[in-house]
Amino acid sequence: AQKVTQAQTEISVVEKEDVTLDCVYETRDTTYYLFWYKQPPSGELVFLIRRNSFDEQNEISGRYSWNFQKSTSSFNFTITASQVVDSAVYFCALSEQGRGADGLTFGKGTHLIIQP
Amino acid sequence: NAGVTQTPKFQVLKTGQSMTLQCAQDMNHEYMSWYRQDPGMGLRLIHYSVGAGITDQGEVPNGYNVSRSTTEDFPLRLLSAAPSQTSVYFCASRPLAGAPPYEQYFGPGTRLTVT
After folding, report:
1. What's the alpha-carbon Rg for chain A, to the nearest Å?
2. Which residues in chain B have Cβ-Cβ distances shorter than 8 Å to A47?
């Protein structure tokens, strides 16, 4: 069965610090997809990134970067020079190729608090 | 495009009452799903549909019914509400069921309280 673990329930940092959110996943499939979503205080879910299991290149988008390591089954998310607007709950999610129609398996989320 | 819309935004029910949460999308997506979000639990899949007339159960289907008569609409029915169904409900859709799972588009959510 697939599983996503976000061990950090809550992280609090001061603005401008760098912060890394951890995500560890379990799957038996060789083809799978990993996602990160952001849920700001307003409650909507905002898609951030999708990565497939064959693409281990790290990705950078502005202050956001993602480190995918199949060897450790991890897909970590780093925010550089954090800002108060980054305060949100962040979810990591997994979808297996063969179970694509079954939806996403989400981690429990990490609540990130950026203090001014 | 309005994307994925959900109504109502908020609802309070008494135990035993029934209601339908509405979900509609205007992106012609084949795949639609319902999740519930509980504190500290992340989102869990309730039911999903890969096209009109086809539905299936997710991780937590008990107490919920769904139907899919059109591509656009995917209502979620609570037949006899229970306090354990107090949650935030999200509807989602994505294109090309069966193809590599592109990102799902989520609705704004419905906050349901059952007293």
Report:
1. 14
2. 103-105
Which residues are CB-contacts of A27 (< 8 A; sequence separation ≥ 6)?
A2, A3, A73, A94, A96
- Is the Cα dihedral A50, A54, A56, A58 positive or negative? negative
Q: How far apart are CA B99 and CA A52, in angstroms?
A: 13
- Backbone phi, then psi, for A34, in 5-degree steps? -120, 145
Rounded to whole angstroms, the Cα distance separating B31 from B35 reads 13
Phi-psi group of A97: left, alpha or beta (phi > 0 → left; psi -120 to 50 → alpha; rest → beta)? alpha
**Best CA proximity match to B24, nearest among B61, B76, B70, B73:** B73
Structure tokens at B49: 């549909």
Q: What is the pLDDT of residues A66-115, one digit of tens each?
A: 999 999 999 999 999 999 999 999 999 998 765 555 678 999 999 999 99
pLDDT-above-70 percentage for chain A: 95
Closest Cβ–Cβ partner in A33, A103, A107 for B42? A107
